[in-house]
Design brief:
Shape: elongated
Radius of gyration: 27 Å
Oligomer: single chain
Largest sheet: 7 strands, antiparallel
Order of helices and strands: EHEEEEEEHHHEEEHEHEEHEHHHEEH
CATH topology of the largest domain: Rossmann fold
Structural class: alpha+beta
Number of domains: 2
Number of strands: 16
CATH class of the largest domain: Alpha Beta
CATH architecture of the largest domain: 3-Layer(aba) Sandwich
Distance between the termini: 69 Å
Amino acid sequence: MWLGVAQCTAHFPAELFEGVMMNLILHAELTVGLVLRTEVVPLDSSTSTSDTKNIDKSVLYEVPGYTLNQVLRRRLLPKVPERDASLEQDCILYRDDSPDPDVTLVTLFPLLQPGQKMPHYHPDVDALAFRYLPSKHDAAPPLVRVDVVPRNSASRDEGSRLYKTCVTLLEIIDKHGWGLLTGYSKRMIHDTVVPRNTYQDFYHVMKKKYQHLKEEWVESTDAVKNVFEDIGIATFLMLLWRDTYPPVIENNQEKWGRPPGGFVDAGCGAGLLVHILLSEGYQGIGLDIRARKSWDTYPTSTRSRLHVCALDPLSPGFPPKNYFPPGIFLIGNHADELTPWLPVTAALVPSASYISIPCCPWSFDKGFHRASSIFPSFIEQEDKTLKKRLGNTSSSTYGAYLCWLSALTKECGFQGEYEALRIPSTRNWCIIGRYKLPGHDGTARASQLLAEVVNRGLFKTRKNVAAGH
């Protein structure tokens, strides 16, 4: 039996209801924080068998006053599969039988396997129905209403979990409807370099493998943030390298592609990213101006690859070949003063590439300032696509710095790629230089930029310091 739970005023017209509900059906993570994503399942290949007891399946599609419009089956994938199982749902959309019909009814039926308990992220109901109820007269606003078929006499009181869940769902529907009406566009666009599903699936594997490191963190900074941030960056880099370089054969086994010259993490800090990548079989080193407490906690195989070194762009023979061989991949995660030197260094090393995740804004020999840090040719090179993706952020100092770095990337001969990484940091944008711009001598331009810095005489190399200073 269907029972009403809650309703709210709809601040959008009926013709937008279908678009709102389809978006939420295809992106369940927008409604439930414990859901990772949604996958559409062909109706003839489902692995689930309905275990709902209160629904007569023979009349599922027959609703008085409505006409069946579409049937879609989705699979909800949980963020924590060790705790919750995935769940399939039949999502059924109906048009009302009005002279100008719109989709105004959507029903959701969970399809439990025999003996399966309802996952925690799903209300304890056999079915949900969302209805758009147009206003009957000018004084009454349109409504969105949610009805359910409860399981096990679930409470619908205002303090109950079911009631709170339904109210939250109604608020989300109304928010998305209002956004669609007013022309809202998503501010942050992810997954333009590495596909979302590929990243999420592999991140889960990496997280399960390395999350124990948060218990071993000895630095004074936030263990959870730093560990999961570096796990996320390592996941992204491994997938990026897989798609960039050809596979390699090791011990008669094919391995993912990797930089032929290895990697160098410039300004590696605690060295955790280096440790994870080395543990996954990649070759590389980490450089920093001082050793950290964490370095002593790693195995010898990692400690031997972490070096105290202050990079000096003004020194003869920069960049040093012992740290930057041909084919090296440079990593700069919140590298501060080294950030603008990443594309310059990559341009000076044959077949090198780089990724930069900027934080504190620095130009070559002083702090970044919008007015004084713009080279004339940089203005023409500024990436309009990045500026559009940044939206309002482009007007901030951080956004202006990203645009400046994107121009520098092109000055150094690289096709800039940009991604908002899925990591726990507000400074999560990265700039990637892995492909060269045709017909552009980035090496010559990088050498020119280096000479200009030398001539100004303002650059001060930071000195190696003892641990703890």
